[in-house]
Amino acid sequence: MHARSALPRRMVLAIAAGGLAAALLTVPSASAAAAHDGASTAAKPTIVLVHGGFADASNWNGVISRLQHDGYKTIAPANPLRGLPTDAPYIASVLKSIDGPIVLVGHSYGGAVITNAAADNPNVKALVYIAAFVPDEGEQLGVLINKYPGTQIPAAVQEVPYANPDGTTGTDLYLRPDKFRAAFAADLPASTTRLMQATQRPFSASSFTDVTKAAAWHSIPSWGLVATQDKAIPPALERFFYKRAKAHVVEVPGASHVAMISHPETTTRLIEDAARAAG
Total domain count for the chain? Predict the structure, then answer.
């Protein structure tokens, strides 16, 4: 009696084991699905966004939210704004901490920083300039900004001296309250620009006399955005820079110097174009 009942039990166990094996063959494991998702994310480059003078990383908020929505890992480090000899090595150190391909984006003075910082970094696959300086080796921003007429920055700045640790005196540049909106962000609401002016980060006047040591755009593909109503960097100068760098260019009619704030959608599309090409 016991022997006869054992046979059906073995058959039931065999059938159950077979069903489990089939299920394991047809249903992906959680770890496999996670690995697939990780591979998909890893395939996209990291986007690094570098702000310019009178600004901070929050200027990129509208762009960051869109890039993250589209699956891009995004970093917007604080640019020290202490001059190219300090700022370029600092941003270069951030880049060295990132694994995999990078799309490096610079706004305004940040364009000069990324031009120097990306040199000799094989992970930087594309440079994107948003209403930015794109200097060549040996050039100074203070000379370049006057190459074409139209900048309001020299007349809008206030110089504030500060003491260096070695006892020498440096000079910080601020945009005056009554000049900020017209020179920097004329296509934004006045209520917004009042906050931006109050929280602006000054940058060292030496940034305009520092000499560019390396120009990564000679070897790295570039993209550029022209802000056609830019009163900080003249649009003609932006076009000159981008043509010289053989950049892929978009123009944003009516955009002020802070096109990434007033036109985040267009800015994001340009960055993602560069990312797709880099990939």
Answer: 1
The CATH number given to whatever domain includes residue 72 is 3.40.50.1820
> CB of 175 within 8 A of CB of 157?
yes
Query: In residues, how long is the chain?
Result: 279
Tell me, yes or no, whether 67 lies in a domain.
Answer: yes
In a domain, 260, yes or no: yes
Provide the residue type at 244 as one letter.
R
Q: Would you say residue 4 has pLDDT above 60?
A: no
Structure tokens that stand for 78 in this block:
């604080």
Tokens of 117: 């910082």
Residue 1 has pLDDT above 70, yes or no: no
**String of DSSP letters for the chain:** -HHHHHHHHHHHHHHHHHHHHHHHHHS--HHHHHHHHHHHHHTSPEEEEE--TT--GGGGHHHHHHHHHTT--EE-PPP--S-HHHHHHHHHHHHHT--S-EEEEEETHHHHHHHHHTTT-TTEEEEEEES---PPTT--HHHHTTSSS---HHHHEEEEEEE-TTS-EEEEEEE-TTTHHHHH-TTS-HHHHHHHHHTPPPEEGGGGTPPP---GGGTS-EEEEEETT-SSS-HHHHHHHHHHTT-EEEEETT--S-HHHH-HHHHHHHHHHHHHHH-
Domain that holds residue 43: 38-278
Model pLDDT for residues 66-78, shown as the tens digit of each residue = 999 999 999 999 9
Q: Which of 154, 68, 119, 228 is nearest to 237 (CA)?
A: 228
**Residue 18 belongs to some domain of the structure:** no
- Specify if 211 maps to a domain: yes
